[in-house]
Structures are given as C-alpha cells and as structure tokens.
Description:
Elements: E1 8-9, H1 35-49, E2 53-60, E3 63-71, E4 86-87, H2 93-105, H3 115-118, H4 127-132, H5 135-139, H6 147-150, H7 162-168, H8 186-200, H9 204-213, H10 225-230, E5 236-240, E6 243-247, H11 256-259, E7 262-263, H12 265-275, E8 280-281, E9 284-285, E10 313-318, E11 321-329, E12 334-340, E13 345-351, H13 359-370, H14 385-404, H15 409-414, H16 418-446, H17 450-456, H18 458-493
Antiparallel strand pairs: 1-10, 2-3, 2-13, 4-7, 5-6, 8-9, 10-11, 11-12, 12-13
Helix pairs in contact: 1-13, 2-8, 2-9, 7-8, 14-18, 16-18, 17-18
Amino acid sequence: MKVRSVTAFSILILTLSTVASVSASSVVPKARTNASRIDEYISRAMEAGRIPGLALAILEGHEVTCLKGYGVADRSGRAVTPQTPFFLGSVGKTLTALGIRQLVNEGRIAYDTTVRECIPWFTLADADAAARITVRHLIEHKSGLSRAAGSENYTFQSKYNVEQLVRKLAQVELVRPPGAAREYSNLNFVILGHIIETVSGLTYEQYIQKNIFDRLEMKTSFLSRQPAEKAGLAAGHKIVFGITVPLELPWPTAQVPAGFQISSAEDMARYVSLFLNNGYFKGESVIPNNELPERKPPLGAFAENERGYLAYWQIFRKPDRIGTGHAGGDGLYSTVIRIFPLSMLGIVVLANCSDTVSAESIGEGIAAILEGKQPAAPDRSLPAHWLLALVACAIVALLVFRAGRARRFPGLVSEKGARPLLAWALFWLLDGALPLFILLGIPRVGDMTWKYHLIANPEIASIQLASALLLAATGLTKVFLLIRKKQAGQKASA
C-alpha cells in the first residue's frame, strides 16, 4: 500500500458530552464553510493531480456542514456521491486502534500486555525480542519491525488471512530492540488485527462491523471488496506514462487491519463526529468506561515528533495550529481525515488516485480556507512517469540497436582473439541470463506474480517485461543466424 511515515498522539478532545449525529444527506454550508472557494480549490487540485473522483465531508462543531462528491467514480462516468465507497488506506489504522481501545477500556487487555499473552505462539526470528513486544509497542510503531518488512509483496497476497500472515513472521528480523525507536510498519497493525481476533473471539471483520460500523450506522463501509463493489466502489487509478488508468489490486486479506477497509465520506463523517462529541454517538459511548480525555492547554506545548501512536492519530503541527488525524494511500487511492480539536473542525477527503496531488495536501488547503486563509497550491509530487518513459525509450533504442547488429554476430564469433570471447560473454549475459532473471527471477525474488507487478507497478513492470522480451528476441535471432551460418559452412565444405 503507499504509506506515509508519521508521528502521533492520543490526546483527543472535548469536555462536551452533547450528542450529535451526522446527517445522511448533503448539508447547506455554514458561513465559515465557503462553498465556492472550496469547490474552486478542489477543482484545481483534481486537475493538477489528474484525480478522476473525490468525496468531501466537513464537520464544524457538532454538525456536518458540507458533504459532497466531485468527478467520476469509474470509467463509466458514474458520479461520485457522499455515499460512494473508497479504500481508506492507512486511515483505516485508526479503526483498528479504536478496536484495541475498546478492548482496553473493557479491561480485556492493557496497552502493556505482551503480544505473547494474547497470541501464545507468536514469534519472530529473535524469539526473546518477540516476547517483549507489547500492544503499546505495536500501536506506537515501536515494535522494531521495519517499514520494509511491512511492505513485502507476500504480505499483500490474498491467499493469507490475518492469522496466517502473523505466523509467517517467524523468520522476520527486527531492525532494533522493541521500544527503542519508532518506525512505521504495516505489520504492527496486522498483529493488532489478530490480537482483536484472539481476545474478542471474533474475526477482525466481524469485530469491526459489530463494534464500530454497526454502532455508528456506517452503512456504506465494508471489510471486503465484493459488497463494496455492489454498493458502487470507486475504481482506483494510477497514472501510467502520463495517462490516468483504472486498476484493481488483488484483495490483500491479511492487510485489512493495516488499511484496506472501505468507507464513504458520509460514513467517515459519522466516524469523525465521534471524536468531536467526546466519544458519543446518538447518546451511546462507543468507547465504554473511559471517554476521550478532556481538551487541555498542554496540547499546544507538545513539540513536533514528541508523541507517538498512543491510541489513535498522527499529529499535524503547523506554526499556527495543531490537528490530529491520519493520511492513507494504497497506490490507487489517497485519503485523509483531519480533526482540529481547538477549533472544532473535522475534514474527510477521499480520492481515487494517489500519484501526484495527495488527499493530505488537499485537506491542508481546505483547512486553510475554513480558517479564512489563502490555501497553498496543491502539493504536487514529481510524477515519475516522464522519467520512466525516457528510460524506457533509451532501453528500447539500445535493444533495437543490439538487435540490428545481430547479423554481424556470426562473423564476430568466427574471428580469433578476445573480441569473440567478449561477444560470447555478452551474448550469454545480456541475451540469455538477464532476460531469464527478469522473467523468472524478479517475481520469485519479490514473491509476486507478473500480474500483481504489472498492476501495482505498471511503469516499472512494463519496462522490465519489454526489455526481457526484446533481449530474448535478440538472443534467439543470434542463435538462428549462427545455425544458418553453420549449415551454410557445412554445405560449402561438402
């Protein structure tokens, strides 16, 4: 999934216990919500990022003041609405964190409970270190598991469920002792997902559905692809050599707790409202026995990067404001939720493309508009497709040039001296071993299929595949010419 490294903290919000539910329809904006400026800004951001579709929710205090869809959900031209589901990416980690928080508040586990107490067979390459990892280490990303380990291709394969993937971690090396330092890794939340399963006796999907989606009346939120597609799931998109293309990654069953939940702007507005209402939804505390901490002045005293994941969120610190929330992206979608407890604002942005302008950047711009400021231009990352296109052209030109020289190859090998040896070496290396490695070795080394590689990394994979096929074609051409030359020589001698 494309995941951002973050810092976080858990002091969340508000002494108010007033109950306020989220409206299920589009809402007339309040005065602070400048609808025309927001529409104009989003239009520019979508154009700059080549984003086909986007959904937005804005909460002010206890009310949803804007709930809207922009653009199209898929190639059919179907319009995005507030009910259109999107993959959440790492925003979904907050759902897993809330599930853990509920279990903690019910006294079924503690943040300092070790993973082994919940999952007795849990181990890593260093069994002693694995025994010291706690729930707190996982939720703060201080387990010692690396970002790279959490992004290995096998972790995204649909053949593994959550438990099976946790069992496969037995050979994974820690990059540092548990608790020593923070490094963001999806594996932390995969393990947390299985802790929810072992402690609750439910599957991860059953627990989140029962204890969060159902309790918050999130009716267009899902934990598997098929029902989401029936509800109009927005197609994910990738920019491939400058063209926005709809793509679909294989369903990564084991990675659902780390960010493959699915939801809509309308439902995520309900979810965010929970944290602007002291943990209540329609009179019920969704975090029983331990409501969210009160808002306190020391909130502004924390230095950037000081706090980690204690229970929920990243911290977003700007010179003039503090916010909490989370950003996410899986390569085809880009998402963000922002909560500004001091100004009582909540923002949800869901987009179905993540290659250039991120939902996180758009969320920052909307926050500036809501504060009456001029938003910065969308933070557009440098698209790699133009550079990759140049690399592809250079490789193809080189291979075509080599193929054009193939007719001279038989003459070269009949000469004496070092040059024929060099020609033979290049032949076996470039026209034999290299294409075989690309075609067979890369999927094996990366533990992925070519289908997955072409979907997840279309530009790089297409260059690799085209290069391998051209190299192989060049090699076969040379072999054919050598055989013809040998046959011609035999006829001449006869």
